[in-house]
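User: My collaborator sent over this chain with a note saying "see what the structure looks like." That's all I know about it. Can you take a look?
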Amino acid sequence: MEEEIYQLARQLGEVSEGEEETLRTLCAGAEEELRLRLRSGCTPESCGKCFPLAAAWLALAGLEGLRGGVTDFSAGDMRISARSGEGSAWYYAQAQRTLSPYLEDDGFCFRGVRG
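Assistant: Without extra context I'll predict from the sequence alone. Here is the result:
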């Protein structure tokens, strides 16, 4: 499944040749992370196409996060440009939405409000 995740990530994101090995590593990590978060009784295979797609989105979130930081710097009239990381958050949200029906509860608890 790791190769399927990698191929999906390459199709969905902009990945340079120099980032391919990093993306492979991120795909393996995303697969493991999501596998461990599946509800009891669920397997990656039982999620159908949702699992590899969510793992690809998660790997792309990691790759985008690695790309962040200062992208440009000038000394005369001082100008600094930085990547915002917004793409990383978008990819992460896509991964969560895609696989949410199959994931364990993320720990949210509503305990009530005193009247």
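A starting point for your reply to your collaborator: The radius of gyration is 18 Å.
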